[in-house]
Amino acid sequence: MSRYRGKISGPLLDRIDLHIEVRALEEYEVIKSSDGESSEIIRTRVEAARILQIQRQSKPNNALSTKEIEQFCVADEAGVTLLKAAISKLNLSARAYHRILKVACTIADLAQSIDIKPLHIAEAVQYRRYNV
């Protein structure tokens, strides 16, 4: 997998919001029934988050400009501190910073949280971690 990722340039990877490595399932995992949420429940939650975004900023989070991100995707002090630490430790770009804020805002919307909390920032940072 790392050999494949090595073929993709850093600036291109920087433009992708979510970096998730999914391992192959074992045979028994494919066969057993799932305990997770149904697709219908997830769809309802996503639709509610999208409506919230349209009401708040007249567009979905993925369509926000840099200035709009700074206006609508504001984390609390603890969240900003966490994000600064992640930028420093993971050597993230300004583009990655803004993408993390948009993803964190979406995570907060899905959780029906008005504020972007450190938990949302931490989850969004996890989606940006990759080794090139």
Overall form: globular
- Helix/strand/pairing class, anyone? mainly alpha
The largest β sheet comes out as:
none
Query: What Rg, in angstroms, do the CA atoms define?
Result: 17 Å
Number of strands: 0
Unreliable stretches:
none
Helix share, percent: 55-70%
Figure out the total of helices: 8
Task: Quickly name the level 1 CATH class of the domain at 1-20 and 63-132.
Answer: Mainly Alpha
3D structure, described in words:
The termini are close together. The protein has 132 residues and is mainly α. α7 crosses α8 (118-126). It contains 8 helices and no strands. It has helices at 2-5, 10-14, 27-31, 39-57, 66-72, 77-90, 94-110, 118-126. The protein has a domain at 1-20 and 63-132: Helicase, Ruva Protein, domain 3 (Orthogonal Bundle), CATH 1.10.8. The mean pLDDT is 86. Helices cover 61% and strands 0% of the residues.
Provide the fold topology.
Elements (H helix, E strand, L loop, with lengths): L1 H4 L4 H5 L12 H5 L7 H19 L8 H7 L4 H14 L3 H17 L7 H9 L6
Helix pairs in contact: 5-7, 6-8, 7-8
Summarize the structure in short:
With 132 residues, the chain is mostly helical. The protein has helices at 2-5, 10-14, 27-31, 39-57, 66-72, 77-90, 94-110, 118-126.
